[in-house]
């Protein structure tokens, strides 16, 4: 359905936004900031979007892409979208949990919440999440245009190993996303979650400040973490998708025709990521193997069992009571 209507330094959005209806101008510059590398599939998809919008609007909308965090990290992205100083962005939908007052999106970090990527895709685009997106728009001025584009599942990448089960991971110092759900998950697995800014992670792994990190192939390989680690365990503990976002201030400055074009091209770009992602992951896996990394498929049921109750301490606090069970119930045969 259409949804029109990470680091230590992640900041929380606290500003109250007031919107003023604007009249669409003949030429509109759209600043699109994101944190992905210039050589990434994500950046290619965003540039495809930018080119298509420019062409279909006869240059009336000029989307200027700023990759690799040029306009700020994830936390700054939410602030800038809310304030209207950034027009569009793109990042994992569960990271909306870093927006102050919208921690409910951290439900997406609950381990093994989604049984498959198909389930994640369907549920993130269902009526379960639609009211959360709408509240975000009303309260913070951040509009979720679409949730499109599969992410590689989060897994465990370490300097110690190999990891075949939780017993092999015990005591490993690992950099994880700085949110309570991720931290509680790795504590349940006997690991030592450690806060490290993402832009410091490569050197921290190299110097032994931490002994691991939990990203999928889509981040691990472009960031070249395989150069400073030796083991990769496909735990697949979190499945997610990318969200495409616009500042409500910017959205109100677009004509209805231009809005339709933007949403259409966002969805096409997201589908490109999903379509080409599988081939990319195969190439990235080969890159790691050629670098001499040892890759394992660990005992996922054992990891799942140890963390099965992690979500309960956050029920009625970060998200509404019963949300996790509702999501799980949508995946029953």
Mean pLDDT: 93
Largest sheet: 6 strands, mixed
Unreliable runs: 1-25
The CATH superfamily of the largest domain bears the name: Bacterial extracellular solute-binding protein, family 7
Percent range for β-strand residues? 15-25%
CATH class of the largest domain: Alpha Beta
Strand arrangement in the largest pleated sheet? 7-6-8-5-9-11
CATH topology of the largest domain: D-Maltodextrin-Binding Protein, domain 2
The name of the CATH architecture of the largest domain is 3-Layer(aba) Sandwich
Helix content: 25-40%
Count all strands and give the number: 11
- Following the backbone from N to C, one meets helices and strands in this order, namely EHEHEHHEEHEHEHEHEEHHEHH
Tell me the number of structural domains.
2
How far is it from the N-terminal to the C-terminal residue, by CA? 22 Å
**Dominant shape:** globular
Which class best fits the helix and strand makeup? alpha/beta
Tell me the radius of gyration: 20 Å
Question: What count of helical segments does DSSP give?
Answer: 12
Walk me through this protein's architecture.
It is built from 12 helices and 11 strands. Mean pLDDT is about 95; it is low at about 1-25. The strands form 2 sheets. Strands 7-6-8-5-9-11 form a 6-stranded mixed β-sheet, with helices on one face. The chain has a 5-stranded mixed β-sheet with strand order 2-1-3-10-4. With about 325 residues, it is an alpha/beta fold. The chain has 2 domains: about 30-150 and about 240-280, 3-Layer(aba) Sandwich (D-Maltodextrin-Binding Protein, domain 2); about 155-240 and about 285-310, 3-Layer(aba) Sandwich (D-Maltodextrin-Binding Protein, domain 2), CATH 3.40.190.
